[in-house]
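Backbones bend. To wit:
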Amino acid sequence: MKTKAATALDFYPDTSTLKHMIEFVLLSRKGRTDGNFRNLREAGRLDVVHECLLLGFFTSGAIRRDVVFHVILGGPPRPPVHLTFDGRSLTDVRTDERTWEDIFRKVLSGGSHPGVELRRESFQELVKELARKERDMFILEEKGENISDIEFGNNPVFVLGDHVGLPRKDEKFALRYGTKISLGRKPYLAATCVDIINYLLDLRATRK
């Protein structure tokens, strides 16, 4: 019996079961790519990634099941690593940093956790694959179009950097497929950006 060869799109979550899906892409330039670290802060600032994940997924007493969060890690020893956190299947999580430290360590050491997948893939490869799905892609940058003037569509993708931002070459690459948007003149923490976007989406659409 012949088996169908997996394509790149086979590894991406099927969003057809929900009316609206929101995806975030976070580039962590120095995020460590193995489980050999003492804590998240010393792992190339994975503590920043943890903060973004919390505000991407958690409301008071619930997890946003309509969110898929992609994290690209660019630190040592074997970059890049693409971690996908899928809200539809993410379980056994809490908000404390120790829980997420254990999750990162396990997955980056070759283990598994429900709702988390690891692939060897770069930021630009991920952007191209999402573009092939014809998603509305928005790249966060202070000089972009004001977010209040933007129509997000049903299944938007929001691209942002960590505390040091997106490298210029990666930002230019992403802009081939998306629109540059801004939350305003003030620079915000990456996690705050994620929180603001979720808040605006809550106002504009019915979410599960």
